[in-house]
């Protein structure tokens, strides 16, 4: 299969927050750019997918994080929630 990417999409969009919602038939991933000192964040991209594709995405992300950490070392997470950082399977709603 050949995959084509247009120039404006290839440039990418920076996001430092994601909010995830779901229904029985779809997952909605909103990628957001939150800037310091600006009280209003902007959704920069929205991706809608089936629950099956969302689960495939989760597995692909987990696999890629493992591969990244094998090459570059553990990704350090800042202290959050009074020092508690949930495991990957405990995340709920946003990233």
Total E-strand runs: 3
The portion of residues assigned to helices is 25-40%
Shape: globular
What fraction strand?
Answer: 15-25%
Count of the domains: 1
Low-confidence stretches: none
What Rg do the Cα atoms give?
Answer: 16 Å
| Secondary structure tally, helices | 2
Structural class: alpha+beta
Q: Could you report the average pLDDT, rounded to the nearest whole number?
A: 87
Distance between the termini: 31 Å
Order of helices and strands: HEEEH
The largest beta-sheet arranges its strands as: 1-2-3
For the sheet with most strands, the description reads: 3 strands, antiparallel
Chain-wise SSE layout:
Elements: H1 7-10, E1 17-22, E2 27-33, E3 42-49, H2 51-72
């Amino acid at each position: 299969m050949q995959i084509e990417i247009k120039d404006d999409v290839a440039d990418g969009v920076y996001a430092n927050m994601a909010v995830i919602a779901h229904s029985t038939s779809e997952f909605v991933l909103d990628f957001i750019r939150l800037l310091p000192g600006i009280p209003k964040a902007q959704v920069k991209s929205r991706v809608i997918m089936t629950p099956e594709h969302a689960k495939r995405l989760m597995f692909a992300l987990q696999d890629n994080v493992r591969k990244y950490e094998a090459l570059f070392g553990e990704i350090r997470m800042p202290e959050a929630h009074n020092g508690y950082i949930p495991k990957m399977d405990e995340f709920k709603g946003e990233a």
